[in-house]
UniProtKB/TrEMBL annotation:
Its EC number is 2.5.1.-. Keywords: Isoprene biosynthesis, Magnesium, Metal-binding, Transferase. Gene3D superfamilies: Farnesyl Diphosphate Synthase. It holds the Pfam family polyprenyl_synt. InterPro entries: Isoprenoid_synthase_dom_sf, Polyprenyl_synt, Polyprenyl_synt_CS, Prenyl_diphosphate_synthase. One of its GO terms (molecular function) is transferase activity. PANTHER family: FARNESYL DIPHOSPHATE SYNTHASE (PTHR43281:SF1). Its cofactor is Mg(2+). Belongs to the FPP/GGPP synthase family. It is an enzyme of class 2 (transferase). The keyword Metal-binding applies. This is Polyprenyl synthetase family protein. It comes from Kordiimonas lipolytica.
Length: 298
């Protein structure tokens, strides 16, 4: 049996470190605007795998990037991820009442506060990236801002969500669904894996290898997520399950069937690992993450 101890320790340490970065940023000031900050904190500090921040830190370590700087980028990524979850859960989107085993933000607060909390978390992310504390080189900061904007906008995460919302009315084949998932889920994962290379002034080959790793990892992650939606329970997963099938959404699990989808996830994980060959043992945690995403139960 594979020992996931080092990876689990790294994920736990990442979560603690990210919260230490964000705690003094998301400050309550005693004014009526504190309600939106409370909602932001409720989302950010509610747990989760912290996979995207982990990818930032593991990638940054390959290029000798100072950890405090990498942590700030990782915190920015987590802000964008949490914003996307808040908005995905809204009644106008996926209409979920449960996230990570707790009421979703719009249920805990209200819809208007949830929308504003998501908006504010996106703003915080770019505020963090644009700060000199994140990197002394303004060109690097600009690259980080540009690539995160691309990954999270209409050509990435938001565009993927738009396709996903229309999916029940579209005749999507496997290639179409892969494109949807690469945009909605994969784009932010790709940025997370490449951010350390951007900060470390890495060459094109290194960045291309990390992009290839993250692309395959992101697709494997989404297939595993869809398998959990089919096979898991709300108690295990921490959110409602069976919703994709009920909504008539196209997923690779639905198109391929469970067995073939599980095999495809394994193939993608193996491909992701192959992209890391040039990094030798330095990428051991990134390799472990490829196995983790397809074998997780949450």
């Amino acid at each position: 049996m594979e020992d996931n101890g080092p990876l689990n320790e790294a994920l736990a340490a990442t979560s603690t470190a990210i919260e230490r970065v964000l705690d003094p940023i998301l400050v309550l000031n005693g004014g009526p605007e504190d309600r939106v900050v409370e909602a932001m904190r409720y989302s950010v500090f509610s747990g989760g795998k912290r996979l995207r921040p982990f990818l930032v830190l593991a990638g940054a370590e390959l290029f000798g990037v100072d950890k405090p700087q990498a942590l700030r980028v990782a915190a920015a990524i987590e802000c964008v991820h949490c914003y996307s979850l808040i908005h995905d859960d809204l009644p106008a989107m996926d209409d979920d009442d449960l996230r990570r085993g707790k009421p979703t933000v719009h249920k805990q607060f209200d819809e208007a506060t949830a929308i504003l909390a998501g908006d504010a978390l996106m703003s915080v992310a770019f505020e963090i990236l644009s700060s000199e504390e994140t990197h002394s080189d303004p060109y690097v900061r600009l690259e980080l801002v540009k690539h995160l904007a691309h990954a999270s906008g209409h050509r990435g995460m938001v565009g993927g969500q738009m396709i996903d919302l229309q999916a029940p009315d579209l005749d999507l084949d496997e290639m179409d669904v892969q494109r949807l998932q690469q945009m909605k889920t994969g784009a932010l994962i790709c940025f997370s894996a490449e951010a350390g290379a951007i900060m470390g002034h890495a060459g094109k080959q290194a960045r291309a290898s990390l992009h290839g790793y993250a692309r395959d990892l992101g697709l494997a992650f989404q297939i595993a997520d869809d398998l959990l939606d089919v096979e898991g329970t709300a108690e295990e997963v921490g959110k409602a399950t069976g919703k994709d099938e009920d909504a008539g959404k196209a997923t690779l699990v639905g198109l391929m069937g469970v067995d073939r989808a599980r095999k495809q996830a394994q193939i993608l994980a193996d491909q992701a690992i192959e992209h890391l060959a040039q990094f030798d043992d330095k990428a051991s945690l990134l390799r472990a993450a490829a196995h983790f995403v397809i074998n997780r139960n949450v």
